[in-house]
Amino acid sequence: MRTGNGAIGWVLGGTGGIVLGALAGLTWAAALRAYMVEIAAFDSQFTWWGTFGAILAPGALSGALLALGWQRARSGRASAWFAFAVAPLAVVPLLRPGALVTMFTTGLGGGAVGVVAIALLGGFALGQRGPVWLRIVLGALWLAGLAGLAATPAIIPGLPITTPRGAWVVALVTGLMLLLSIACAAPFLARGDPRSPSRRLRC
């Protein structure tokens, strides 16, 4: 019996896997939006472009591309080009008129770029390509980035980590970044690695 039979087989492979990746990316982006609400508090505003166009849609697109990257990696055809799968998360928010000027003059809006940079650092560090020493160095930078994000609520009034709400915000952003970093490891896996789970299970 092949595991590809039935609805779950469609979900786990091919087009279904990409759709599942898009759903995961959409959900991830929605959770990130919740984190942003906690950080910005009353300054946070929901708009069709700002929320759906610049956050949720890029999340779904990146999730679909990362799922495709993992499908290729599982079949021994990992491609470093899929490192660009997370680019929409950083690029699309900057397409809003005036966003680039605002980022370079005030720094606002650079958070999306930082999230993508940290995730790619983690993906490379967790991957199998490149010299070990470089993965160790980038892994240290990745951990520093994670620590920085985890410490962010501490500078927000009313969100100390010693409170349940503050601890929840730390858990939320840390978990989200760990998930995205693991997803970003697909482009950095070795091609044709026999240890890669590329073979379909049969029973």
In words, what does this structure look like?
The chain is an all-alpha fold and 203 residues long. It has one domain. 64% of the residues lie in helices and 0% in strands. It is built from eight helices and no strands. The chain has helices at residues 6-12, 14-40, 48-74, 87-91, 99-106, 111-126, 132-151, 164-183. Helix 2 (14-40) crosses helix 3, helix 6 packs across helix 8 (164-183) and helix 7 (132-151) runs antiparallel to helix 8 (164-183). The longest helix has 27 residues, at 14-40. The radius of gyration is 18 Å and the shape is globular. The termini are close together. 28% of the residues are buried. Mean pLDDT is 84; it is low at 193-203.
The helix content is 55-70%
Shape: globular
State Rg: 18 Å
**Class by helix and strand content?**
mainly alpha
Q: Into how many domains do the coordinates divide?
A: 1
Order of helices and strands: HHHHHHHH
Number of helices: 8
Largest β sheet strand count, sense and barrel closure: none
Number of strands: 0
Q: What's the pLDDT, averaged over the residues?
A: 84
Unreliable segments (pLDDT under 50, ≥5 consecutive)?
193-203
Q: How much beta, percentage-wise? A: under 5%
